[in-house]
């Protein structure tokens, strides 16, 4: 099964889940705040090769900007 990253629309926490193909995250809940309806991130190119750091609310608390621990 493929792995997808899901982002919580409420707190911005990113969760990686093994999902069935086509899973959109609507029925997943955030592990951090419990909000339902996570948003699936496009994987494969989103995390690497972004110059200048991506930040912008996508990072976990404590991320120094290289996102090695949060994406
Ligand atoms: Zn959350």
Automatic annotation (TrEMBL):
It comes from the Bacteria. It holds the Pfam family Zn_ribbon_8. Residues 1-43 form the Putative regulatory protein FmdB zinc ribbon domain. InterPro entries: Regulatory_FmdB_Zinc_ribbon. SMART domains: CxxC_CXXC_SSSS (SM00834). This is Putative regulatory protein, FmdB family. It comes from Desulfosporosinus orientis (strain ATCC 19365 / DSM 765 / NCIMB 8382 / VKM B-1628 / Singapore I).
């Amino acid at each position: 099964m493929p792995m997808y990253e899901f982002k919580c629309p409420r707190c911005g926490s990113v969760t990686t889940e093994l999902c069935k193909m086509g899973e959109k995250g609507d029925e997943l809940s955030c592990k951090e705040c419990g909000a339902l309806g996570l948003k699936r991130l496009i994987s494969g190119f989103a995390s690497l090769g972004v110059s200048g750091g991506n930040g912008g609310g996508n990072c976990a608390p404590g991320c120094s900007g290289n996102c090695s621990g949060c994406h």
